[in-house]
Amino acid sequence: MLNNISFSCRKGEFISIVGSSGSGKTTLLRIIAGLETPSSGTVFLAGKKIVAPSKDIGFVFQDLRLFPWLTVEKNITLSMEKQEDKEKTKEVLEQILSLVGLTNFRKAYPHELSGGMAQRVAIARALACNPKILLLDEPFSALDVQTRSRLQKELVEIWKKTNKTIIMVTHDITEALILSQKLMVLSRAPGTIKMLQEVPFSYPRNPDSFDFLSLKKKIVNII
To answer: Is 2 buried (19+), middle (13-18) or exposed (0-12) by CB count in 10 A?
Structure first.
């Protein structure tokens, strides 16, 4: 449950939403995506009211939802199949495969991929229609520490190269501080915005630095 949520996000900005379990983080993300309808209020994207899922919004789910009977390239281009310009579709596919580092695994099936590679497919699929905004729901929560760290770095590079607006839900405050420019801290249910915190560090970030740890402690104490 959410209550009196109001915020804006600049084009190309990276925001992370953090808070305790049950604070409504995923619900807020689904409302932004048009997957759930709020009881009151309105979501706008570039001045357009969001009332349903749109190709302007890419969504990476926590459970990936890849189709096991389709190859990497077929999973990525599934949302593009209605496009009449086949050459353009092929061009975009090549660009995205290169962007996520999966060019050599285009013919692989999901069961043949590591967890990290499967997550990259999910991100690539969300980017395939060139959305204005990319939403991620705890995208790395099921991965081991080393794979998560590597994909965090890769996500920052993807964000910089594409200049996409990204809103990510995570329960990991360290991850949020490593990745995002701004943190939104939600209270316990009913979720309200307790704090909007700018992250003043340049990339790449050192999670062991004094300033990083001090800001992390501040956010932990608020949650």
So the answer is: buried
- Dihedral of CA atoms 66, 59, 73, 67 in degrees, nearest 10, equals 20
Q: What is the pTM of this model?
A: 0.92
Residue 188, SS3? coil
Give, to the nearest 10 degrees, the angle between helix 86-100 and helix 115-127: 140
Tokens of 15: 């925001």
- Sign of the CA dihedral 179, 9, 132, 62? positive
Q: pLDDT digit string (tens) for 153-189? A: 999 999 999 999 999 999 999 999 999 999 999 988 8
How far is 34 from 25, CA to CA, in rounded Å?
A: 15
Indicate the DSSP class of residue 47. T
Q: Distance between CA 173 and CA 64 in Å, rounded?
A: 22
Rg (CA), the chain: 18
Amino acid making up residue 34: G
CA atoms within 13 A on the CB side of 116: 15
